[in-house]
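Write out this protein's structure.
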Amino acid sequence: MKALSLSVLLAAPLTVASLSAQAVTLKLAHNLQADHVVAVTLRHMAKEISDKTNGKVKIRIYGDSQMGGPRQTLEMLQQGALSMTKVSASELEPFEPAFSIFSLPYLFRSPAHFDKVVFGPVGHEMEQLPKKNGFVLLAAYEAGTRSFYGKKAIREPADVKGLKIRVVSTPTTNKMIELLGGSPAPIPFGEIYTALQQGVVDAAENNIPSYVQTRHVEIAKYYSEDQHTSVPDFLAISTMAMQRLTPEQQEVVKQAARDSEKYEKKLWDAQVQKSKAEAIKLGATFVKVDKAAFQKAMKPLWDEFEKDPVKSKWLNKIEAVK
C-alpha cells in the first residue's frame, strides 16, 4: 500500500510537468512569395523559436496567400483558426483607426525618422492597440517607400489625372489618389499583373522589390520615385495563441520577433539595391519627380488628419520624435 502511495505521489508532478512542456504548433500565414525578404525573415524567426524552446514551440508557415489575403488572415486570428500573420499597417486600419497614420503621405522626414518612430517607443505603444480586437503586434518590418509605376512616366501630380491606380484600399489611400485626380482601384494583390496587362488599371504603387518580384516590371516600365508613403509591415499574433504558451515560451517568441526586425532590415536594404539593378536590366526607367508638388497636393489630407482627435494625437507624437 505504501509503495502504491509513493508511486502516485511520484507520478503527480511528472504529469504536471509533461503538460506544461507539451509541444505547441503555431500556424502563421502570409501573402508573400517564398523569396520575399519578410518571408525569409519569418522562416529565420521560426527556426530561432524552435531552437530556443528545444522544439516545444514550432511555427508552421503558410505563404503565398494559401489562407487568403491579410483581411482574411486577421479575421482568422480573431476566430482562433490561425495564430500569426504578417500584415501591412494599411490593412490594420479597419481594425484600429490609429494605423491610418502610416498611410498619410510624406509622414516621415527621413529614413532615420521612420526608424525612430516605428522601432521606438511610439511604435511599441501602437503595437498594443489591436489587443481589444484579439491580437497584438510582435514586430515591425521595413517595407520601403511606395511609389507609382505604370506604362507612362508620372513626374508631377497632373500626370496622375484620369488614371486608374491600383491601391490597398483604405480611406486615406483612396483620398490620396483622388486629390491627385486619379481613380483608386481596389484590385486584389494577385490580380495586379493581369489588370495592368489588360489595361483594367493604368498604374499601381508599391516598393521597388515588390515591383520586381511580382514581375509588374515586365508591363509597367516606368517607376516614378515620388515615395509618397513608408508603410511598415507588422507581425501579428492572436491573444488566444499567446495563452497557449508558458510565460517562458512567450518571452522566447517576443524576443525572437524583436530579433527578426534587425535581421529583416539588413536583408531589405540589400534587396532594394539588388531589385533596382535588376529592374534596370529588364528595361525599367526610374523617374525623378517634383516631390514638393506632390507634398503640396496632399495638404487637404494633412488638414483632415490634424482636425481628427485620434489621428492628430498620433500625428503629433510622430512629429515630436527627433
